Amino acid sequence: MHLIGLSVLCSVLVSVLLKIAPRKRLDVAQMVTWNYLVAAVLCALLLRPDLGSLRSAGGHWWVLLGLGVLLPSLFLVLASAVRQAGIVRTDVAQRLSLLLSLVAAFTVFGETASVVKLVGLALGMVAVAGILARPASAGNGRMVWMPLLTVWVGFACVDVLLKLVAQSGTPSMASLQVAFVLAFVLMAGWQVTRHARGTARLDRSSFAAGLLLGLLNFGNIVFYVRAHQALPESPAVVFAAMNIGVVVLGTLVGVAVFREPTSRWNRLAIALAILAIALIAYAPRG
Fold first, then answer.
1. Are 148 and 26 in contact (CB under 8 A)?
2. Where in the chain are the domains?
3. What is the maximum alpha-carbon separation in the chain?
4. Do 10 and 216 touch, CB atoms closer than 8 A?
5. What's the mean pLDDT when you consider all of the chain?
6. Is the predicted pLDDT of residue 84 greater than 50, yes or no?
7. Distance (Å) of CA 130 to CA 92, 138, 240, 241
8. Helix, strand, or coil here: 103?
9. pLDDT tens-place string over residues 210-256
10. Helix (H, G, I), strand (E, B) or coil at 256
């Protein structure tokens, strides 16, 4: 279970780093760029994905390209959500993206819609509404629900795209390797353009923060993969512990460390989110 704990810690620390970035005057776009360089290198060295399997991707190369564009775009939105709505609500919104993935599993991938999963889905949808609700003390005039909603939908889209590629016979790690490289190339091109135009200068602080972000982001992935390998007979336990762990630790850090305000609806939503994740994880497989 220590692998799950490390994955949870890395996930929450990603949000913490994005939270403090504006205070340290770090360029988040540059951080995201170097993050994907680290992720691509570590994925190749530690996970050693079978890139030969990419030949089976066939007509799904457009999906890999979509991942290369979506991942960094979503990372930038995630940073905006953490900055505007806080770690608590952003981490819950990210984890509840599994609801839309579940809808896709029912409607696109032919999975059986069991009663337990449908109850979990219904509770989760109520939780989403509660998370989007703005605390009264959070200030006025900001549509903070927009980045939260984008995070919710965006991470579900990533999951669906990975499943589409997997259907072609391409392992998820090989797909992620390609997506990381594409994301870095696209983001690096953008940073060079920004630097050339004088709109943003490359700086060492953002570079160093980006390397740390990449270590944490990849750590979240690799520890989660290793946890599944260590507990091959208990995928539901790993799935539930990971998602619930991020919700709980993210809430504790957001409230205790950053004094983020939460409304009664937000707190109810967090409880419903935990219950929904547990129901979906432990529902009988059809």
1. no
2. 2-282
3. 57
4. yes
5. 91
6. yes
7. 10, 15, 21, 22
8. helix
9. 999 999 999 999 999 899 889 888 888 999 999 999 999 999 999 99
10. helix
Encoded amino acid at 276, one letter: A
CA pair distance 193, 228, nearest whole angstrom:
41
CA Rg, the chain, in Å? 19
269, 127 in Cβ contact below 8 A?
yes
What is the C-alpha to C-alpha distance for residues 178 and 63, in angstroms, rounded to an integer?
11
Spatial separation of the C-alpha atoms in residues 147 and 153, rounded to whole Å: 10
User: Which residue is it, tokens 């170097």?
Assistant: 34
The CB density around residue 10, as the number of other CB atoms within 10 Å, is 20
Tokens of 180: 């990381």
Dihedral sign computed on CA atoms, order 68, 69, 72, 77? negative
- Choose among 203, 216, 164, 284: nearest CA to 11: 216
**End-to-end alpha carbon distance in the chain:** 27
For the entire predicted model, the pTM comes to 0.92
